[in-house]
Amino acid sequence: MHLNRSTLGKLVVIAVAMFGFGYALVPVYRQICEELGLNVITQKDGTVARPANTQVDKSRTVVVELDGNAQGPWRFRPTQNSVSVHPGELTTVTYEVVNTQGRTVAAQAIPSYAPQSATPYFKKVECFCFKQQTLGPNEARQMPVVFFIDPKLPREVKTITLSYTFFEIGGAVAMKEG
């Protein structure tokens, strides 16, 4: 019996030590990587470092036309009509939405592309369309889309239209508030 308690005690101490080591490992790893300049995501000034893309095709330019359609109680539009990009180049555009109602609404954006053959080459890194948006009464919001065009886009495609339809999700807000 004494041997079982002694073994149990040792196992508990080992388990606690392993938990402590695992818990301490994250900040230690982060500090080591930061000191050595490895795998650093955040600069010392707090800004996010974006790795340089060596796959940019500067020999050609693709025009991305931006369009917004609203199906609901808001104004929805891109803040610019188009942007010229080199394939492989990381680009940010912004869409603006204004809830014109005196109530909270939940909405979702669905993208579409023209020509449709360009769809697999249009790569979004960040987009408001990835999740449902909840807008307060009379709220205005600027929403970014970060994307790049895959350099494998066929050369004959010179223009891509990115269009979003922003529509209300019925009952979603009422369920969250209730």
UniProtKB/TrEMBL annotation:
Q: Which family does it belong to?
A: Belongs to the COX11/CtaG family.
User: Source organism's superkingdom?
Assistant: Bacteria
Under the heading NCBIfam families, the entry gives: PRK05089.1
Role according to the record = Exerts its effect at some terminal stage of cytochrome c oxidase synthesis, probably by being involved in the insertion of the copper B into subunit I.
Q: Which organism is it from?
A: Massilia solisilvae
Q: Where in the cell is it found?
A: Cell inner membrane
What parts of the sequence cross the membrane? 7-26
Species lineage = Bacteria, Pseudomonadati, Pseudomonadota, Betaproteobacteria, Burkholderiales
Q: How does it sit in the membrane?
A: Single-pass type II membrane protein
The record's principal subcellular location, in a coarse class, is membrane
| This protein's UniProt keywords | Copper, Membrane, Signal-anchor, Transmembrane, Transmembrane helix
Query: Which InterPro entries does the UniProt record give?
Result: CtaG/Cox11_dom_sf (IPR023471), Cyt_c_oxidase_assmbl_CtaG (IPR007533)
Give the protein name, as stated in the record: Cytochrome c oxidase assembly protein CtaG
